[in-house]
Design a protein that fits this description.
heterodimer; A: mainly beta; 0% helix; globular; B: four-stranded antiparallel beta sheet
């Protein structure tokens, strides 16, 4: 069965510092990995995805993520955090053997302090 | 429309009542998904449509939950005889294609509270 783990409920960083939000996954078959962000009382917004190719993928708002097959991880990163990055972040996975559903992690709340 | 639209935004139902939640996907999007998001949790898959065909309903928690998309555009999620454990945010998402690498576009959700 597919699963996604986000080991940190909350991440706190100071504005201007780099941030990392961790994600590991477990699938059979090739993983298609996604990050989404959720602001209060809103639906999820797509940030970036890894399908194949370069392990470092770049997405919206300066975010990037690194796919590591040996560690089955897909950590979200940003070189310099902004207060406006404060939100709930979800890692998600689909596979070509898992049907059409996207499986989401439980989410990590990011707080960026000014 | 410009995005996925869901209505109502909030719904309060008394235990035992039936509710219907509407989703208007992005025009031309083939795939439509329903998710349930409990407080403090990630979205949990409920069901998937490709055009009007419901290809996966494995996530529907009971036979009280029913979804349809009769003309391949607007979808309705119906919950019969609501229970308190049905209280959650119900998210609808659509994607242009059915491929595994197509990102999902979410609506703002319907917050259902069962009293």
């Amino acid at each position: 069965a597919q699963s996604v783990a986000q080991p940190e409920d909350q991440v706190n960083v100071a504005e201007g510092n780099p941030l990392t939000v961790k994600c590991t996954y477990s699938v059979s078959g090739n993983p298609y990995l996604f990050w989404y962000v959720q602001y209060p009382n809103r639906g999820l917004q797509f940030l970036l995805k890894y399908i194949t190719g370069d392990n470092l993928v770049k997405g919206s708002y300066g975010f990037e993520a690194e796919f590591n097959k040996s560690q089955t991880s897909f950590h979200l990163k940003k070189p310099s955090a902004l207060v406006s990055d404060s939100a709930l972040y979800f890692c998600a996975v689909r596979t070509n053997t898992g049907g059409f559903k996207t499986i989401f992690g439980a989410g990590t709340r990011l707080f960026v302090k000014a | 429309g410009a995005g996925v639209s869901q209505s109502p935004r909030y719904k309060v139902a008394k235990r035992g009542q039936d509710v219907a939640l509407r989703c208007d996907p992005i025009s031309g999007h083939v795939s439509l998904f329903w998710y349930q998001q409990a407080l403090g949790q990630g979205p949990e898959f409920l069901t998937y449509f490709q055009n009007e065909a419901q290809l996966d309903k494995s996530g529907l928690p009971s036979d009280r939950f029913f979804a349809e998309r009769p003309e391949g555009s607007v979808s309705t999620l119906k919950i019969q005889r609501t229970q308190q454990e049905d209280s959650a945010v119900y998210l609808c998402a659509s994607s242009l294609e059915g491929g595994v690498n197509s990102p999902l576009h979410f609506g703002n959700g319907t917050r259902l509270t069962v009293t």
